[in-house]
Design goal:
Number of strands: 15
Order of helices and strands: HHEHEHEHEEHEEEEEHHEEHEHHHEEH
Largest sheet: 9 strands, mixed
Helix content: 25-40%
Strand content: 15-25%
Number of helices: 13
């Protein structure tokens, strides 16, 4: 049957660039590259400090993926030989067919030097040139088909902004409760500047830094939302990200500050960050069920680690070594256990160095200014501040920073 056809012509007048206005509204109609979705490999980076949720997280990400065979997982396990045997016994993924897709670094928990250091080792020893790079925390639960949706969303924003290989999806995900209680409904979130906080590190030094918050967005979005900020616990990009913005393992004992360092370095490299417009993953926000690497600062035991870790193989003597999971040895120097005095010295040096680069304290000594990890921050800080609405030296956050560039009424308060 044939029907009469009609044509409709729409004339639009605006002082704005109509292409820029209309393109995001219809970008959800842009076809994606199905070949890439079905064949591309995704590397999943997980650093776990004595976390009993790491095993269930790995199981869940394989179970919920549309193409689990395309996944490659790299885990930096930091554990106590004497106390954490149950962590490994609880990892039933060792007996699964996908165990061969997992590579692990195992190191004693007292050699842990913070998430920046741990993630740097994963990039250095476990990442193997996979097409996409997903970085998550060790306590997560996924939505079904998460792998396909992330690739589709990344393709979508790359097409919209014309920056293939220069886009990142990242935010603070909504939460879940133990063991697997996921809310029936959750709102998507966007990262915003929250407040400046201060932490006393030593007798003569207090560390101040900007804290971020994830705000729930009320809008129905058919496109990921532009974001000024980045979350270390959930970040998805192309694999080239590892080469363009690699972690610097010299930033030992840095926790609050990791996400800002990386965000400014991405900014300097021309990357654009987006918050996913769908719920992809859930995060366990409570911390009382697990320990964290800061417990090492409280010990009075001084250990000469090189005496105990001459051979990396000795590190895993108590834990089960499963043939189907590849265990990767690292340079013994990376397994060195610092004394409490060394921990404090390195921590103060790196945290003060960050504050210097953010213009939040005066520079003291060549050791700080000479650290190459800080150079991209110094060079790009002024432009980054204008973009995100934060003045670090004066500890001021504008409405733009507090609301992530959106209006307050667009959030669920």
């Amino acid at each position: 049957a044939h029907f009469k056809r009609k044509a409709l012509t729409l004339w639009c007048y605006s002082k704005k660039d109509l292409h820029a206005v209309l393109r995001p509204r219809f970008s959800h109609l842009i076809p994606t590259t199905e070949t890439e979705i079905k064949s591309a490999r995704i590397f999943v980076s997980i650093c776990s400090y004595r976390d009993p949720e790491c095993g269930p997280t790995v199981e869940d990400l394989f179970y919920k993926a549309t193409f689990p065979d395309r996944l490659r997982v790299g885990i930096n396990w930091q554990y106590s030989e004497q106390e954490d045997v149950k962590l490994f016994n609880a990892c039933s993924y060792y007996g699964k067919k996908y165990a061969k897709q997992i590579r692990e670094i195992r190191m004693p928990h007292d050699a842990a030097k913070g998430p920046v250091f741990a993630r740097a080792l994963i990039q250095q020893y476990l990442y193997d040139g996979e097409d996409f790079y997903l970085q998550i925390d060790s306590h997560m639960r996924f939505e079904k088909g998460w792998d396909v949706r992330l690739v589709q969303m990344l393709q979508q924003v790359e097409h919209t902004c014309g920056k293939k290989g220069k886009c990142v999806l990242s935010t603070y995900p909504p939460g879940y409760e133990l063991p697997n209680e996921i809310p029936d409904s959750s709102q998507i979130t966007l990262l915003t500047a929250s407040r400046f906080t201060s932490e006393k590190v030593s007798v003569d030094f207090s560390y101040e830094m900007l804290r971020l918050a994830g705000k729930s967005v009320m809008l129905e979005c058919n496109h990921p939302l532009p974001s000024y900020f980045w979350a270390a616990g959930f970040s998805f990009s192309r694999g080239s990200f590892v080469t363009d913005v690699p972690y610097d393992q010299s930033l030992e004992y840095v926790f609050f500050g990791e996400e800002l360092i990386m965000a400014i370095r991405m900014f300097a490299k021309g990357y654009q960050i987006f918050a996913p417009n769908e719920i992809i993953v859930h995060h366990l926000w409570r911390r009382d069920y697990r320990k964290n690497f800061r417990e090492n600062e409280l010990t009075n035991q001084t250990v000469d680690a090189l005496d105990s870790v001459d051979q990396p193989e000795n590190i895993v003597s108590v834990m089960p070594l499963v043939s189907s999971v590849e265990h990767v040895s690292v340079d013994p120097e990376n397994l060195r256990v610092d004394s409490p005095e060394e921990i404090l010295k390195k921590k103060v040096r790196n945290l003060r160095g960050l504050m210097v680069c953010f213009g939040m304290c005066s520079e003291e000594g060549q050791e700080i200014s000479g650290n190459s990890a800080f150079h991209p921050i110094k060079q790009s800080l002024a432009d980054f501040e204008k973009c995100c609405g934060v003045n670090f030296s004066d500890r001021l956050i504008s409405d733009t920073g507090q609301n992530g560039g959106f209006e307050l009424f667009q959030y669920l308060l």
